[in-house]
Write a structure and sequence with these properties.
Strand content: 35-45%
Distance between the termini: 16 Å
Structural class: mainly beta
CATH class: Mainly Beta
Number of helices: 1
Shape: globular
Radius of gyration: 19 Å
Helix content: under 10%
Number of strands: 28
CATH topology: Methylamine Dehydrogenase, Chain H
Strand order of the largest sheet: 2-1-28-27
Number of domains: 1
């Protein structure tokens, strides 16, 4: 829903997040409830058990403000997702898959219920990672960036030794003052408060944007531009970022046309995707981009496994340039999410939630599990209820409702 300058009326959760990110300091006093559903083989639903759910169910506890889940890596390591959330009191919590110190609890223990990370009460953001369950990050209200988990390719940015099983099991600060960061499997991307763009870690496909394929174990600036604004998504080998002028840039792997260049050419430095993306909302899944533009239209391009492009087509019909999903103009740019297991979600301006793609573990909230990989929806299907935010993490979904 659109952000305005008014300070009265009812504000939904994504509006509050955007106002905070713009530098405003007023607080949100509403009541927020969080629901989750999907797979729970490591307790990632946070209910003290490993029972999976195929429809939205209230998450125990109060004060949940922002959720974030990781997706198992598709080619470097096996495992399942860890989950993170910030509460309204500024505390950070984790649960689920815990190897390589991924939960930040100074151990490798799995947790099936939310456990607080440290004692800090000034956590502000957790990244919109798509495919990374082994390296994590979060930043605080004063611009400090903290990392933990695996450091196999230097993705922690601490200029320390790499390789398996190098890792940190509790949050460790990366020098600098940061606006936003995102995990991309074995690399990390971040924008500083001065508008410069930095990246580090694995660089097999040039996904770091340095016009080479060299790995880096400490932050390295991409070019000299100071107008980088938002990192909208990064999936293992590709990244999507906008500048302050609303232009959209992408680079890295392009085997499914996911860079939106109408080709399959790999790019190791930023390449602009034609069009105006001012005020757009983004969702990045497995080699797939899904975007809601400021005019309320919904678009997709890249890989189409299990119909994730929402074009009512079977898989293997990839698109290398943006195509519109349906004809609707009421999609909310603030209500987008994608998952590494080829699932996507979007919220309309009236709060209705739609999901599509692969329904593994019941992640699409249709009250049905999907033991078969062929169980999928290639066009959006509605999830009952009125929603203010949605987040997909592998085979698990998290949604919030403001009361």
């Amino acid at each position: 829903m659109a952000i305005t300058n008014k300070e009265e009326g009812v504000w939904i959760l994504p509006q509050v997040y955007n106002k905070i990110n713009e530098g405003d300091i007023w607080d949100y006093d509403g009541i927020t409830t969080m629901y989750n559903w999907g797979y729970s083989n490591h307790g990632q639903l946070g209910r003290g058990n490993k029972v999976s759910l195929s429809s939205p169910t209230l998450l125990p506890g109060t004060g949940w403000m922002r959720s974030y889940g990781t997706t198992p890596s598709t080619n470097k390591i096996t495992g399942d997702s860890a989950q993170f959330a910030i509460k309204s009191d500024g505390t950070l919590w984790s649960w689920g898959w815990g190897e390589y110190g991924s939960l930040g609890l100074n151990n490798n223990t799995y947790r099936s219920s939310p456990t607080q990370i440290g004692a800090n009460t000034n956590w502000k953001g957790i990244p919109l990672s798509v495919c990374n369950n082994i390296t994590q990050s979060a930043w605080t209200t004063d611009g400090a960036l903290f990392v933990w988990g695996s450091n196999a390719y230097g993705q922690l940015g601490l200029n320390e030794s790499t390789g398996w099983p190098s890792y940190k099991a509790s949050p460790t600060q990366v020098p600098g003052s940061w606006k936003v960061a995102i995990n991309a499997e074995l690399s990390m991307h971040a924008i500083k408060n001065d508008g410069t763009y930095w990246s580090w870690g694995e660089n097999d496909y040039g996904q770091l944007g340095h016009n080479n394929k060299t790995d880096y174990s400490s932050p390295r600036q991409v070019g000299t531009d100071t107008t980088w604004d938002k990192i909208h998504g990064a999936h293992s080998d590709e990244v999507f970022v906008t500048k302050t002028d609303g232009s959209l840039w992408a680079w890295g792997r392009n085997n499914q046309g996911q860079l939106g260049q109408n080709n399959n050419t790999e790019y190791s430095s930023p390449k602009q995707i034609p069009g105006d993306y001012s005020g757009a909302g983004f969702s990045v899944a497995y080699h797939t981009a899904i975007v809601t533009k400021s005019d309320g239209t919904l678009w997709s391009w890249g890989y189409n496994g299990n119909g994730i492009l929402g074009q009512n087509n079977p898989q293997n019909s990839a698109r290398s340039s943006p195509v519109q999903i349906g004809s609707g103009t009421d999609w909310d740019p603030d209500g987008m999410s994608g998952g590494g297991f080829q699932a996507a979600a979007a919220i309309k301006t009236d709060g209705s939630l739609f999901m599509w793609g692969r329904n593994l573990g019941g992640v699409l909230g249709q009250n049905q599990t999907a033991p078969s990989n062929n169980n999928h929806y290639s066009s959006p299907v509605q999830v009952p209820g009125t929603w203010s935010s949605i987040r997909i993490a592998g085979r698990t979904s998290y949604g919030t409702q403001s009361l």
